[in-house]
Amino acid sequence: MIQIEENKSLKELNSFGIDAKASAFLFLEEFADLVSLPEIVSSFGAVQIMGEGSNILFTGDYDGLVILNRLGGIEFENVEGDNVIVHAGGGVNWDDLVNVCCDKGYNGLENLSLIPGTVGAAPVQNIGAYGVELKDIMISCDTLNIRTGESRQFLNIECEFGYRNSIFKRKYKNELLITSVKFKLTKEKSFILSYRELQEKFQHTDKEELTASEIRDFVKSVRESKLPNPEEIGNAGSFFKNPELTKSKLGRVQKKHGKLTFFKIGDKYKIPAAWLIEQSGLKGVREGNTGTYINQPLVIVNYGVESGKEIQAFSKKIQNKVYEKFGIMLETEVNII
To answer: Total structural domains in the chain?
Structure first.
């Protein structure tokens, strides 16, 4: 049976470590409890669905209901064939899922190792790293409309995936709870090693001998060398998206600033936000109790901030500084509430 907690501290439930409070809080762990969710939600105007709070910044207390998705379970289908279907609950820790699949020799998730968050949050953000995005391996996801109780399965193509974006982040934000996600993995040695660091690491490795666990271990080591551990210092990973420019916009920026670091993706040109921030003189900068991480300026860290408003104000300074120098407005990846 679902229990509602009042005036719940969210400090231990968001990776920035902000001590915001929710006027009402619901811990959702059992699929059987989904049937009573709409009736509970009907008593609240504002509702915030959370996974592990790794991509969220509270700028004050939340006057509404926070639903913490902890729906669990991992199941495997068609394990006798080359392609394996993985079905995971929306509240499963993402990296736990990656670890289990790599250990079993089911390939496809290894490049997405050590990304914080839950399985249910992954489609919302269309998480991606090292040449792989969630959309590349997801088959479908099951959802529940938290107000009407309607269940619906979304096929991959219906999710309208974009760069760190999806239909769940726009049209259905805090309306649909992702209860489970289905993935298609493989036992074949079809690894994605196009990312520069992976190319360099495994260029002399026999690809037939290479395993997903080896790739996972390397990805983890790279991420750990660049990104701070939220358990040691509050952060939400990459705070900004990498801006995507048209060819004409890129040309104007190049004309003014000369050589730029960028990658061509389709008809757009992606410039690393970290490079823009560093070129703006903001790598490893600290103001009060917040700042950019010394090894990765794309990450804003919390050195002891009590209110998320200070972090938000610092992020706006970064946006303004980059815009003044390059004429590019960085878009936040973190969900600011």
So the answer is: 3
